[in-house]
Design a protein that fits this description.
Length: 111
């Protein structure tokens, strides 16, 4: 496994969040849960938790406004319980948490 620096990991996270938001733009929850390709693509891009896990502890400690443990925890649930994922929770995170996360990440490292 390659060692990526914090800046690259944050850019990976930004890219994944943007993909999720693009894939689900203009969709209702019912459309989302009925579209297995979109569900698969979204779940795959929630690897932002893996990127968060690889950030240095110093970086995470210096950026407490992001709930790093929640990102890692959600990623672990997706990876280890794929067929038991509650899509309502996924949808809630997409709508309620990802826009703010994207703003915080982009403010730290604008493209």
């Amino acid at each position: 496994m390659s060692k990526r620096d914090n800046v690259l990991l944050i850019h990976d996270m930004i890219e994944s969040v943007q993909k999720i938001m693009t894939y689900t733009r203009d969709m209702s929850f019912d459309q989302f849960k009925s579209d297995s390709k979109t569900v698969d693509a979204v779940i795959r891009n929630f690897d932002i938790g893996e990127a968060a896990n690889r950030l240095t502890e110093n970086y995470k400690n210096n950026n407490p406004e992001i709930e790093w443990s929640h990102l890692r925890g959600f990623r672990n649930r997706i990876v280890h319980e794929y067929f038991g994922i509650d899509l309502e929770i996924v949808w809630h995170i997409i709508e309620e948490n990802l826009p703010e996360l994207l703003t915080v990440l982009k403010n730290k490292y604008p493209s």
